[in-house]
Structure formats: structure tokens, C-alpha cells
């Protein structure tokens, strides 16, 4: 039988971005904590998981349905930002620049991985647009092949309805160095340039 460190490390490795060294370090850390700290940690995760759900309107992960964003009448009801995953909503909110509503697709088109329009919340998006006062859809999918394909697909579906479709700009990050940027990032920066 494997020792306790390896058993726990295997579980931590199931988390995104955790390699074997980090998993072992976390396993040792948890095994060295007082039992009450470990119990609190585990109970917190169990409680949070038991009280979490997906918003029936936008698809974001929340502790209420509808979520606080969809329930907030002070938000711009005319703008809808389409993102791939729930963490993308949090990232957009951190910017404090966007004050509209969201729609979470729960993925991006990837035919090679068997992810087509039916696996995403695209049908729900179109239904939502039919029965709302949305005048602009901002597509904020990732700037990778799947995200770009998803953005193009959505724009082709939405534009005939007369709703304005925009795409978030992309380019160099603040504090970035042009000499170290990849060609796709630089191309996006040039395409999305603006007058100063």
C-alpha cells in the first residue's frame, strides 16, 4: 500500500496546475497540520460545494439562483458579455470596467475534442437574446483557436438579429515587453490599435 503522502498527493494532482512537487508539498503540509485545521479545511469545501449551483439565467457558478449579477437591476441590461467559463466572469468583474450581464458557455467549440454547439450553452444564449432587451453582445472568449472559432460562430448566429456583436480587444499586457511577445499577441496588438 502507498504511504499517506503519496495517496494525498495523487488527489492534489487532480487539481488544475498542480504538478507532482506541488502536490507532495501540499500533502506534507496537510499531514503536519493539527487535526482541527484539516477538519475545518475539509468542512469548508464540503459546505461550499453543497451550497453552490449554476445560475439558471447566465450559467455562472453561484450560491443563489438567480445569481447576484443577474438579480442586480442596476446593471446594464442592454449589454451581455459571453465568456467560456465561470472564472472568466470573476476576471471581468475584477476589471471594474464592465457593468452589464453575462452568459457562460461552459467551454469553447473544439470539434477535435468532440465539443460542438450542442455541448455548449449556445441554445440558451439565443433564447435569452430573443426574450431580452440586449443591444450589444461582447464576445470575451479566449484568444486561442477554439475561442476564436467560438467567437466567429456566435457572431454569425447573432448578427442577423440586428444585435451589435463586438469582440474584446487583445494585445500586449500592461507592463509587457514587445521583444518577448509572441507573433499572435503582436498581431492582435497591431490590429486593435487605437489613436492617441
TrEMBL record:
It comes from Allisonella histaminiformans. This is Recombination protein RecR. The lineage of its organism: Bacteria, Bacillati, Bacillota, Negativicutes, Veillonellales. Keywords: DNA damage, DNA recombination, DNA repair, Metal-binding, Zinc, Zinc-finger. Belongs to the RecR family. CDD domains: TOPRIM_recR. A zinc finger (C4-type) spans 55-70. HAMAP family: RecR. GO terms for molecular function: DNA binding; zinc ion binding. May play a role in DNA repair. It seems to be involved in an RecBC-independent recombinational process of DNA repair. It may act with RecF and RecO. Residues 78-173 form the Toprim domain.
